[in-house]
Design a protein that fits this description.
The protein has helices at residues 30-36, 52-61, 65-68, 84-90, 152-166, 191-194, 213-243, 275-278, 287-290, 306-313, 328-333, and strands spanning 5-12, 40-42, 45-46, 94-100, 122-126, 136-139, 146-147, 173-182, 250-256, 282-285, 295-297, 301-302. It has 345 residues and is an alpha/beta fold. It starts with a strand and ends in a 12-residue tail after the last helix.
Length: 345
């Protein structure tokens, strides 16, 4: 097997249950559902610290929050650990990051200089915004703020597609695409997606209190609209990989940093110990490793385990600073799972 590309796509606040393959009776996610049938479908992927910055810091370092030091939003992730991008660069990979960053901690709209990008070279990024239709970013080393055209997830995906095409014959690459939706505000998806969902027709989780049903319906309709928009973009990425001849030599990962309560248990957002907050989608499509037919993986896996597992699947060494566990031997060779529990912070 030649050295695989790695494309890691993740959304902000997309709970496992808000997918067709996760059993939601309302949401339309046909591309993800088809991908799940061709991928490792992790039924127990857990966000051990279900809030944006801690989860992203764990993804980038393979460390728990008590080690990397990011427990809350809008604080700076230090440089003590070898990062995901640095580890892949050491293995001969080009590195690229597009979209929301949210571990710099120097202001949500501030320019992030190269020394704080943790090893990513291609760079079209903003620290954080949830204004999806008036969304800004910085490109490369130009400190001039630019604006994505239209709904930012679509524009960001088009850049990722172009990167994939341009690197079809190049060195292997690690491409991370980080979307802001379906994080609230829920009502801001393109209109054709909002038109798909009637709040009155939605089936709610039985743990939504009667007093919260009205607001839950309104917010879920917008949330699902974002999800379906992103599902179409996943279809676009997959098609671009196929058309460029890279599908059989790419590890294609879909994930989310944490979920969203959306009034289950009468709660909003994340940072809660319940299923809707901590249970996230995780699909790994790698036909060169696992064949064309997918399978369910019921093993528990935590955010800290993603970096070492991806390095393991790519055949690269795992830095000593990593605390997470490498699931590659379990996934590829059916060795015993490295853990039987996950830690919640």
């Amino acid at each position: 097997m030649s050295t695989p590309n790695v494309i890691f796509v993740f959304a902000d606040q997309w709970r496992y249950q808000a997918t067709g393959f996760g059993g939601d009776p309302n949401v339309q996610t046909p591309h993800l559902d088809a991908l799940a049938n061709r991928s490792l479908h992790f039924t127990n992927a857990i966000s051990g610290c279900p809030v944006c910055c801690p989860a992203r810091a764990s993804l980038l370092t393979g460390q728990y929050p008590d080690r990397h030091g990011v427990f809350v939003n809008d604080v700076h992730l230090g440089t003590d650990a070898v990062s995901l991008a640095q580890a892949f660069k050491a293995g001969g990979y080009d590195t690229a990051y597009i979209g929301k960053w949210h571990v710099d901690g120097h202001g949500r709209s501030a320019y992030i200089p190269p020394e704080r990008r943790r090893g990513f070279d291609f760079w079209q990024v903003l620290e954080c915004t949830h204004s999806y239709n008036e969304s800004y970013y910085y490109a490369g080393n130009d400190p001039t703020k630019r604006m994505w055209e239209g709904y930012d997830a679509i524009a960001q995906t088009r850049v990722a597609q172009e990167y994939i095409r341009e690197h079809a014959q190049a060195d292997p690459y690690l491409l991370v695409l980080s979307w802001g939706p379906p994080h609230n505000p829920y009502e801001t998806a393109p209109q054709q997606y909002n038109d798909l969902y009637d709040p009155a027709q939605l089936t709610l989780h039985p743990n939504v209190p009667a007093a919260d049903e009205s607001i839950a319906r309104e917010q879920l309709a917008g949330y699902y609209a974002h999800c379906t928009a992103l599902d179409d973009l996943i279809g676009d990425l997959y098609r671009t990989l196929d058309e460029s001849g890279q599908l059989d030599n790419t590890i294609f990962v879909c994930w989310s940093d944490h979920g969203d309560m959306l009034w289950s248990q009468g709660q909003e957002r994340k940072q809660r110990p319940w299923e809707e907050s901590i249970h996230v989608p995780l699909l790994i499509h790698a036909p060169q490793l696992f064949g064309a037919k997918g399978r369910r993986v019921d093993t528990l896996i935590n955010t800290t385990d993603l970096m070492p597992t991806l390095l393991g699947l790519a055949g690269l060494p795992i830095p000593k600073t990593v605390q997470g566990l490498n699931y590659a031997p379990h996934l590829v060779h059916n060795e015993a799972a490295p853990a039987d529990a996950v830690l919640l912070a």
